Amino acid sequence: MKATIDRVRAHCLAKEGATEDEPWPDDKAWKVRGKIFAMWGGDAITVKSTPDKQSALIQHPNISVAAYVGRFGWVRIDPKDKATLDLALDLIDESYEMITAKKAKSTKR
To answer: pTM of the predicted model, to two decimals?
Structure first.
């Protein structure tokens, strides 16, 4: 799992403006402009999605509704194999884009 979290960390921190935080012991959160776009805890990755997309994503055997924030569309990904890790990295990209697009839209007003 060390190689997996190292890859996830590098992927997240390569994003413009991304920072790392440790909101709870042994958990990592990656933020942009103070908003979380991905978290690592318990050997799983949690990312922001939409409630509609969440319904499709949880059909995957290694993806489930995230605890506490699942009602907002967040999902938990258990990267048990390379294909699921690659999917998780794509979902991290989407989560990051959702956060940055929302902020960009609100600053244009």
So the answer is: 0.90
